[in-house]
Write a structure and sequence with these properties.
By secondary structure, the chain is of the alpha+beta class. It has helices at residues 12-26, 87-96, 120-135, 140-154, 158-169; strands at residues 30-39, 42-47, 58-63, 75-80, 104-105, 116-117.
């Protein structure tokens, strides 16, 4: 993920902690944030939200591609526990960011997305499943479409579908 940030030496934990600290100073009812970086078609999301997710009253999604060299779909989402708490932050960022960046205030930050994975482990599982489907004769594009379709049909994340595919292909460990 740090390669996607264009600086292999980036300490993502330090970056997240610094951004969270600044956010909590600016927004006292802030609960946390998440950063999604697109990597090879999938999104890898790192979040500080944890158990505070149930207290979210407002969100602000800020796309990162215009201000960085990250692929489209990369974004930071801020979460706060008080309705309206992110309006001033949205206005301030709106004056500073590229006008092509469409921030999303109080919308569904997932946008119905089934392709977002929640971390590097999940990304690895998806890549393994894609590799299995390709080995079975599917093209890379067809393999991805199959996983995405199965995720939509089952109403689960693509990582869950990929893990089930891998489990189903694992040899039995029964010693008989």
């Amino acid at each position: 993920m740090t390669n996607a940030l264009a600086d292999p030496g980036t300490d993502l934990a330090d970056l997240m902690e610094s951004l969270l600290d600044a956010f909590l100073v600016a927004v006292p009812s802030g609960l946390g944030l998440s950063i999604t970086i697109r990597v090879g078609g999938d999104g890898v999301t790192v979040s500080t939200l944890g158990g505070a997710a149930t207290g979210v009253a407002t969100t602000l999604r800020v796309p990162l591609q215009a201000e960085t060299e990250l692929p489209p779909g990369s974004a930071v989402i801020f979460y706060a526990g008080t309705a309206g708490a992110l309006v001033d932050l949205a206005a301030d960022l709106g004056r500073r960011l590229d006008p092509r960046d469409d921030m999303l205030l109080d919308g569904d930050p997932r946008d119905g997305e089934h392709r977002v994975t929640s971390g590097l482990r999940e990304l690895s599982v998806v890549q393994r499943a894609l590799g299995m489907l390709i080995a079975r004769g599917r093209t890379p594009r067809a393999a991805r479409r199959e996983l995405e379709r199965d995720a939509r049909v089952s109403g689960t994340a693509i990582g869950t579908v990929a893990a089930e595919l891998i489990r189903g292909a694992a040899p039995s460990r029964d010693p008989r």
